[in-house]
Amino acid sequence: MRSLASERPPGDASALFELGGVHDSLGLETDAIPYYRAAIEAGLEGERATRVFIQLASTLRNVGASAEAVSILESAPSLGNDDDARQAFLALALYDEGRYGDALRTALLALIPTLDGYKRALKAYAEELPGTFPARQ
Fold this sequence. Notes:
The protein is elongated and about 55 Å long. The protein is built from eight helices and no strands. It is mostly helical. About 70% of the residues lie in helices and about 0% in strands.
């Protein structure tokens, strides 16, 4: 991938995104993060522009930075077709932050549109879940 990326202009957002993905796939999450950040800074466009936020947040969560992952996923621009994935990764990051009610609510609200029935009841139950925050030490 480095060889392919070197064929692109320096700072090419798509090449940076793909390099981040390769590092992630190889289990080199810490090395992937700067590539994702650089791709965002370089103005990544199209489908990759929506996915870079999910991949960066997921990677941050994997290295123990779940609070930053939550922040990124909550403030990410509209992700269109990938919004369900954003919600799933947000639920995981919220859970890691000890925000169990928020995690379950997020997961349920993402699931509800896919159901044939019980939407109204489940939405009401999800909205009744208390917000939870980790205990301060």
